[in-house]
Amino acid sequence: MNPEPTPAGQPDVLVVGGGIGGLSTAYALSRQGLRVRVLEQAPEYGEVGAGLQIAPNCTRILAEYGLLDEATSLGVVPENMVMRDALDARELTRLDLRDLERRYGFPYMVIHRSDLHGIFLRACERAGVELLNNQVVVGYENVEGGARVLLQDGRTESAPLVVAADGLHSVARRALIGDEVVNSSYVAYRAAVPIEQVKDNGIAEDDVTVYVGPGCHFVQYALRGGEMFNQVAVFESPKALAGQEDWGTPDELDAAFEGTCDTVRKGIPLMWRDRWWRMFDREPVETWVHGRIALLGDAAHPPLQYMAQGAIMAIEDGWVLARHYARLAGAAPSLADPDWDGALAAYEAVRVEHCRRVQTTARAWGELWHLDGEARLRRNAIMRARDARDYSFTDWVYGPTALTPAEEPEMFTPIPLSSATVEQPVA
Ligand SMILES: Cc1cc2nc3c(=O)[nH]c(=O)nc-3n(C[C@H](O)[C@H](O)[C@H](O)COP(=O)(O)OP(=O)(O)OC[C@H]3O[C@@H](n4cnc5c(N)ncnc54)[C@H](O)[C@@H]3O)c2cc1C
Q1: Is 230 in the pocket of ligand 1 (CB under 6 A)?
Q2: What is the residue with the minimal CA distance to atom 43 of ligand 1?
Q3: What is the rounded CA–CA span in Å between residue 190 and residue 371?
Q4: Which residue ranges make up each domain of the chain?
């Protein structure tokens, strides 16, 4: 690397990537009085896509940041989360989200991802975070007293801490770990349309509904105070399984949902057809911190989306890092010399295991959703037998974000499919 120090002065923290993970972390650290600079490659800050579900383990943090009211005013707090079989539309299980809010103290809500991103962007601006664009980071290295990044235009930037929140295809991850993304062969189509367009489709406007089917699933919920309706269609691509380059195309979308129930089939023509999201994750890794370079968000732990926790984990990461910084700064003799090594070790000690659990559960959850044949019937029987007030499957993830490994709750005990009595298919 050819060191050419930036003329703008050195911040306390450099955050690479201005997605939800990068911005929320920048905000969390700036609340501690730190000078934070965000380096984003895109010419503008923004988010592509449609809705995001945010569970109480995230709304709890938004409340602490003073951002929850803004989020609820822009989003929707649904009444139920209902899971249905995508073939026969029968209800399998549900969460009463009002009851869930009473249990965890904070709402389960849905929001347009650009609205959540905008909330963090405005919070960063108010907090004085330096938000730079057109900053393509191509290299990282640890240096005396911190770390340095190399930009595509040859400049360098350095700080006592560099947080790499550069997403699924992270340059930092490639440099520090060198692993490959794992292709699930599943692809997501999204759409957010005016609610009028779907009123006659048999939708449940006040619920999050997830239709699970063989090799596919379909998610629906209202957005923006109920004015819009969000849909996500996910399926396993035969072309991906056959090793073809051109996979996940709209013809595959149509074929994947052909045998599904009315409401799902009516939703498919509304999906955006000019872009789709191939679904990758990575194997969990145990080391996210390399000297003063820390991976965060999807760069550290990209999940498959079946737990709807990817953005939430990124927000939790920043909250945990800032909390440990503050704890150690309070104990430090001088604020000018923060114990970053201590804060990073504490961050890694608790977040790696939590996110590993979410990543591996998301894979297992996806397999369960996409079952066919007798396994599907066994799954349905187990889900139907679940007591709607049984929170043993959510306590480990929707409760307060752990700051230490000792605070991390026990996981649930999976119910084996073999324990179910097979029901006769509905004619
Ligand atoms: C279909 C789908 C549905 C989802 N639903 C949910 C949900 O309901 N709930 C939930 O919590 N999560 C959900 N997620 C996951 C969530 O979107 C991601 O986990 C989250 O956005 C990751 O945020 P991030 O900031 O870590 O990464 P990103 O959003 O990928 O941001 C990375 C940023 O870094 C920038 N960048 C990249 N490389 C460089 C570079 N070299 N130099 C400078 N900048 C760079 C990028 O431009 C980008 O702005 C979903 C994902 C998908 C695909």
Answers
A1: no
A2: 41
A3: 22
A4: 13-82+103-180+283-364
